[in-house]
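Title: Comparing notes on inverse folding

I've been comparing how different people in this forum approach sequence design from structure. To keep things fair, I'm posting one structure and asking everyone to reply with a full sequence. Here's the target:
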């Protein structure tokens, strides 16, 4: 059982950077792997990045590799997504999710945040 709230979205020029935060409540936060997803208008929600409960293992969609970095601070009950070299195609609502990692595969859980809008202008 965990509640999630995303923040940090906004409007940025192509090539710019943003850092998203996902604040969690509940003492069991550190027991979850965490994932970031995004959904653009007219598109399906897609996987962006995931991080293990310890923070040691990180996984990324090919579209964001070498540009985005996921991290977490369990003491602060927060997971982050640092987004660099942003492109217009990164425009979407970004959501965090509390789930599981099975080998290198992220398995979505039932807990989502409300989302935060990221808009990248050309």
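Reply #1:
Here's my take.
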């Amino acid at each position: 059982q965990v509640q999630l709230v995303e923040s940090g979205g906004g409007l940025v020029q192509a090539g710019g950077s943003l850092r998203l935060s996902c604040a969690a409540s509940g003492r069991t936060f550190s027991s979850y792997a965490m994932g970031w997803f995004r959904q653009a208008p007219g598109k399906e929600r897609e996987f962006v990045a995931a991080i293990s409960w310890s923070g040691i293992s990180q996984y990324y969609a090919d579209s964001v590799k070498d540009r985005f970095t996921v991290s977490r601070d369990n003491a602060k009950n927060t997971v982050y997504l640092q987004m660099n070299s942003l492109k217009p195609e990164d425009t979407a609502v970004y959501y965090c999710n509390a789930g599981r990692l099975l080998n290198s595969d992220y398995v979505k859980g039932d807990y989502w945040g409300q989302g935060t809008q990221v808009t990248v202008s050309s």
